[in-house]
Design brief:
3 helices, single chain
Amino acid sequence: MSIKRPKIIICIIPFVAPLDVILDEKGKKSTNVVQPDLFVVCDKNKIKENGIEGSPDLVIEILSKSNRYHDLIYKMNLYQKFGVREYWIVDIENGIILVCELNEGNLFNFPKSYKIKETIKSSIFKGLEISLEETFKNNQNLLKEDEERYNYG
């Protein structure tokens, strides 16, 4: 007896900075242009010669001391306004990743917080799971600080 497995259609097209993402409505002057650190686009029609026109499905920003406000406030509001479905904020300094998911009212839900020893599961890409411990295993200092901070045993 053979088991038939459903075909999985993968629509993920990943990109890394620097690449412009133009978030304005069509026909209007492009004033909302960002360059996310990492992002995923499922709609191939959004890929243009000058960058991406329209919202990515998933955006990942890595915070630094110089861009914290910009990524946590300005870009989060912009991504919410233009319908980015999932926004991950990687805060290496504090050893956490915040995940914001767009709800039916087109607003980000309160961010879920993931610590170094946890696994992130995407709400929009079923089966996408990222082990933070595995991802950050080369940064032993961060893992040790996290273990001390949250008393993992």
